[in-house]
Recover the amino acids of this structure.
């Protein structure tokens, strides 16, 4: 069965974003090879990328600029690799507000997401990734659909903001990896979600 893998960068004190869901406070720990390099590594093992509407719009406002001119000195090798690996990954946006036919991604309504993602996991294929999209993946975690959680902890203390978890999720976790990089102050922790049915 395919895995749904959640990957997020968080502050040392456990915040997903700053007050008012301000993601820019996390930009200082999103640079360098560790964050983007791990994004590219995950994309190599995946064929589907899922995002909520807010995260989708944030990504859509940034990554097409890289794709338009990937050889620009403005981008790192890791950012170029993300664009290259993304070409073979299909995109799903979970939203009740987006409408119309979208050529580059499929829209799933929130009322249908549990059934459709459970079915998608049963189909042959590679991993299914979710990055950002805190509300979405916390909901999927509560419904026992997430298989792994990968959290990259940055060397920043926010003191306030949006916590990475919504309340206390009904999930048990098993540590499978801790990773560091010699040129980064970020630390990656990977957890397997122990399913209730196991």
């Amino acid at each position: 069965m395919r895995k749904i893998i959640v990957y997020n960068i968080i502050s040392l004190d456990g915040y997903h974003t700053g007050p008012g869901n301000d993601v820019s406070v996390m930009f200082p720990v999103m640079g360098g090879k560790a964050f983007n390099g791990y994004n590219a590594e995950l994309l190599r093992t995946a064929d589907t990328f899922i995002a909520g509407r807010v995260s989708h719009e944030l990504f859509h406002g940034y990554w097409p600029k890289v794709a338009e001119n990937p050889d620009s000195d403005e981008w790192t090798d890791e950012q170029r690799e993300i664009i290259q690996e993304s070409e073979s990954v299909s995109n799903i946006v979970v939203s009740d507000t987006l409408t119309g036919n979208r050529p580059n991604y499929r829209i799933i309504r929130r009322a249908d997401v549990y059934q459709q993602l459970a079915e998608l996991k049963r189909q042959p294929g590679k991993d299914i990734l979710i990055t950002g999209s805190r509300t979405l993946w916390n909901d999927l975690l509560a419904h026992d659909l997430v298989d792994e959680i990968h959290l990259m902890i940055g060397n920043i203390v926010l003191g306030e903001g949006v916590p990475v978890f919504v309340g206390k999720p009904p999930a048990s976790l098993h540590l499978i990896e801790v990773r560091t990089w010699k040129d980064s102050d970020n630390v990656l922790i990977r957890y397997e979600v122990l399913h209730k049915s196991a």
Observations:
- Helices lie at 32-44, 53-60, 63-68, 77-86, 113-122, 134-142.
- DSSP finds six helices and ten strands in the chain.
- Residues 32-44 form the longest helix (13 residues).
